[in-house]
Specification:
2 helices; mainly alpha
Length: 73
Amino acid sequence: MEKVPDIISTKDLSYIEDIFNWNFTAAKKALSDANCVQEGSISKTLYEVYNLHYSICKKLIKLLNQGGQNGNK
């Protein structure tokens, strides 16, 4: 498909919701663990994991906010 449709199906939205929830949960857990760990290198790695999952959540929200505008907002 060359053009992204202006609407998404219920099934697609369900997939996006699952992806968001998985990444949001992983981000929360990584942040919580990073704040509990005393070892600096482990804490740093957990913050990197948090940032990775959080950025995916932000990208999904941005995608949904574009509403089929294909980035022309």
